[in-house]
Design goal:
The complex is a heterodimer of chains A (454) and B (90). Chain A has 454 residues and is of the alpha/beta class. Helix content of chain A is 44%, strand content 17%. Chain A is built from 15 helices and 13 strands. The longest helix of chain A is centred in the middle third of the chain and has 30 residues, at 238-267. Chain B has helices at residues 16-26, 58-72, 82-88, and strands at 3-11, 30-39, 42-50, 74-80. Chain B has 3 helices and 4 strands; from the N terminus they run E-H-E-E-H-E-H. Classes of the chains: A alpha/beta (454), B alpha+beta (90). The A-B interface holds A 1-2, 4, 6-11, 62, 65-69, 251, 254-255, 257-258 and B 5, 7, 33, 35, 44, 46, 48, 57-59, 62-63, 77-88.
């Protein structure tokens, strides 16, 4: 029998410590929508999404009420559109048509984001990949709920430097086309290395070709719960600290597992994975930075931050893995700047720089996330930042990503407000020295030696 | 059996249990267990109930109880017991 204290503990986590299920993401394969006529393709896509995900939001809300746990987002990820549209799209404008169709379908079913406007170009680009990448700025400026991602490298294939060079320019162009809204288009565009096929979190979610037709993936959250738990063991040894984080991660993940199973059962769609990430929000008390500070850093960014984050990330995984049979996606601690009040504060007092964040991405779950830089940052510099991040992922066999926003018309010292879950960010200074000649080289960087395991 | 857990927290007053129990009985929800304490004037109750026979959905029962709680100045949550079993039992 469940004791009263256990019930109180759970409800306290939900009411005071921001415990929630961050997202139920339905992955939908669009490969069976393919057609050589772009209008037929769009009609097929709209039909399939509205048919498969028609009850997603309603079901999510019903589960929320039954268990009394908030499910913040209901989302959709689809097959990378460069693959789906390859036969039909002759130019970037054709891809934009698909983007608008996806946006319409997302609005119809009521999801707040739809991911998968993506190209997987870790070794090279097809004509369709290139057209999709070139269409990203218009697609993001002309839609509301679409998220785009491009995978530019992997441990197995090396890094496609041509795509990385192109992405620097695409990010600049996206910033410019959405300049009236503080270049918000870039907040929906992520450049990945080693992108997972089953990630439920935006902006990098897409439904990989290795997946079943439709699938339910769930992303959990809960930085506030971990922080409260860590507060209770202030000054204790690492053993006690690690044990506390593990136990808490287990509990958080179990809630995700329950919601995932229930959603899968009610929707009649197979359960894919739980992504056991610590995903912060701009709300006070829902911050990964605050956990690191509670662990013992005066400010996140201080020497020791990378070690503390490595430990946190590892314990979250160890606790979470036992709570679910299928763990996947990104799974770890996210360190976005604009979406985490503790990170924002650390940047504002000068404790946290892009270089320190880059070091932290070696041990966190993803990469440089939601970082605002000056609007006049050159495209080659953005490509350089992407290349550095991709190299960390490629060599360390982990997912890394860059979601950077060169805010048009703003410079260091100013800040930008995206609103909602995307939060607000101070503009961070970037190293002014140019990597243009390096980025200007054609071709790709070969796969690292340790990828040859056959 | 559809087992649910009802928690009631708030300032103690006359008739809290009566009102909650009347609602449950009207809706054919069977009470399996009640544990209740008062600490410094704060009322704290947990009920385990079986909601198999009720015609209402779990969400509707939750909404009704929430509204009922607001009427008497206490906070009432009603959740499927699975969330607690999953979280606290291996």
């Amino acid at each position: 029998m469940i004791s009263r204290n256990e019930v109180i503990e759970t409800n306290k986590m939900i009411e005071h410590e921001n415990l929630d299920v961050r997202t139920i993401t339905m992955g939908i394969s669009l490969l069976d929508c393919c057609d050589s006529d772009v209008n037929v393709l769009c009609a097929n896509i709209y039909r399939k999404i509205t048919r498969c995900a028609g009850k997603l939001v309603e079901t999510g809300e019903a589960i929320e009420r039954d268990f009394g746990v908030p499910i913040v987002n209901k989302r959709i990820s689809v097959t990378p559109i460069a693959l789906v549209g390859g036969a039909a799209c002759r130019c970037p404008e054709d891809f934009v048509k698909i983007a608008k169709t996806l946006d319409k379908a997302a609005k119809e079913v009521g999801v707040n984001f739809l991911g998968g406007y993506s190209a997987l170009v870790s070794k090279g680009m097809t004509k369709a990949d290139e057209n999709l990448i070139l269409s990203i700025p218009e697609a993001l400026a002309g839609t509301e709920r679409i998220c785009a991602s491009v995978n530019v490298g992997s441990t197995k294939t090396g890094m496609d430097m041509d795509a990385i060079r192109l992405m620097g320019e695409v990010i600049k162009r996206t910033a410019e086309l959405t300049k009236e809204r503080d270049s918000i288009g870039c907040a929906k565009l992520v450049v990945l290395c080693n992108a997972p096929d089953d990630n439920p979190f935006m902006a990098g979610a897409f439904h990989g070709v290795t997946e079943a037709d439709t699938i339910i993936n769930v992303g959990v959250s809960g930085p506030g719960v971990v922080k409260t738990a860590v507060e209770k063991v202030r000054g204790e040894s690492f053993e006690v600290l690690c044990e506390t984080i593990k136990k808490t991660a287990f509990k958080i993940t179990r809630v995700g597992q329950l919601v995932a199973q229930e959603a899968s059962r009610r929707l009649g769609v197979p359960f894919g994975i739980i992504d056991l990430s610590l995903a912060p929000t701009p709300a006070v008390g829902d911050s990964v930075a605050e956990i690191l500070e509670e662990i013992g850093l005066e400010r996140v960014g201080a020497p020791g931050t990378t070690a503390a984050l490595a430990m946190l990330n590892d314990q979250v995984k160890k606790g979470g893995v036992m709570a679910s049979s299928y763990v996947g996606g990104l799974s770890g601690a996210f360190i976005p700047v604009s979406e985490d009040q503790g990170m924002i504060d650390a940047v504002n007092v000068g404790a946290l720089s892009i270089e320190k964040l880059e070091a932290m991405t070696c041990v966190c779950s993803v990469g440089l996330d939601m970082i605002a830089v000056a609007g006049d940052t050159p495209a080659a510099t953005l490509s350089g930042i992407i290349a550095d991040e991709a190299a960390i992922g490629m060599v360390n066999q982990k997912t890394t990503a860059v979601r950077i926003i060169p805010v048009c018309g703003k410079g260091v010292g100013e800040s930008v407000e995206f609103g909602g879950l995307l939060g607000a960010a101070p503009i961070m200074p970037v190293n002014p020295h140019s990597p243009a000649q390096f980025i200007g080289r054609k071709g790709r960087i070969p796969a690292p030696i340790h990828s040859f395991k056959n | 059996m559809k087992k649910m857990i009802i928690t009631v927290v708030g300032k103690d007053t006359v008739g809290i249990i009566a009102k909650v129990c009347t609602y449950l009985s009207d809706n054919k929800i069977n009470i399996l267990d009640i544990s209740q304490t008062i600490v410094d004037g704060w009322f704290n109750m947990m009920m385990v109930v079986d909601a198999t026979a009720t015609a209402k959905t779990a969400g509707d029962v939750g909404d009704d109880l929430k509204a009922l709680g607001e009427g008497i100045g206490v906070q009432i949550n009603c959740q499927s017991s699975e969330i607690f079993e999953q979280m606290h039992r291996i």
